Amino acid sequence: MKNKTFHFLWIGQSFANFGDVFYIVSVVSYLYHLTSKAMAAALVPFFVTLSLFISGIVAPIFFEKYKLKTLLSYGQMCKTFLLLFLSLFLHWGAEHYTAIVYVFVSLIAFLDGINNPIKNSLVPFIVSKEEILKANSFVNTLDQFIKLSAWPIGSLIVSVGSPFLLIHITLLFYVVSSILMFLLHIQEHTKKKKTAQGKGLKNFLLSIRLGWEYTWRNVHAKSISFMSFFEGIGNGVWISAILYMYVKEQLHVGEEWWGYINSVFFGGMVIGGLLSVKFSQSVEKNQQFFVLFGPFCIAIVTLLFGTTTHGALALMYSTLYGIIEQWKVICLQTILQKNARMDALPHVFSVQGVISSVTFGISALLMSFIADVYGIRFSFYLSVCCFLISGWISYRQRKIWSYKENQKGEITGTIL
Question: Where are the alpha helices (DSSP H) in 184-239?
Fold first, then answer.
């Protein structure tokens, strides 16, 4: 795709995504070595998830007042300054003020919660309609590759150097990303004062309500939200605590297999993304097939994964899961981008982010409880049921996934 703005977007976001992982690795490593307590390190992802949830709720207020490019570019710049201040604070010594570290982590995650829906919404603004799926495939593949490679690279830099070295590298990455975000050229409509009739708290609530109202009215967004909720619960079997128990009690292999399973899963998503880029036209014309049968195929693979006692088969199923999941996610994201109003996209993706945060918390507790009380296999059985429910929702709305379905705007329908 010969599109300068698109290249600025994916290069800039790649630097930002690498930096996001690197700074988390450095902060977790610093806190653990400072306190020698696992809880101190575990609080980092907790505050990140909590901040993403909060910012996902209030993000529509910013979407109504400011242009997307303004939020994305200045948001990345603010993250850069926050990381700079965090770096200085750690250098000066945070032995007695570790709570302030969590404040910085929360603020950076809060900005991410605003920027993430924007990043998911920008592709239709900067590429032609025919190239949306290919662009999504490319960006998603890059994201998964970064997730696959950034954690071991960051850990290696910390072990060879120090957490401070990794933070300095992250600062450089953030600066590059900020510059590229300011270079984006995006055609946006002038913001209208849609909520001008309300003031104070009323205006605040009206802005927050916009994304949820549109998601409920638009049958594509509504269907995908219901599917995301049940699949989010089902994905709880892939959290670290469950997989650790799985490799120890069911596969009877070493702890390193937890890392192998995670790696081949992300590897599968990279493979799925590369295939989507290569055969983007075929994938798009058959998007109905991928969305309809994706949840059912994932349910089957999850059942096979949850019942096998052979490590090699577990790796194969994990890879297959990643490939199918990537195809389904790319198709759903493209369908949503094509069938929702352009100005409503950030609001809708913000709702998706809130659903993701909520289901992560619910599934982590629920699946861990079931694994402890009833055994690890029952967690996978529940996961299979969740994916089957998602598949049933997809089947109920099978007509809207069709390649020929090009309606936009206020599309209504029933889910249950």
Answer: 201-217, 219-234
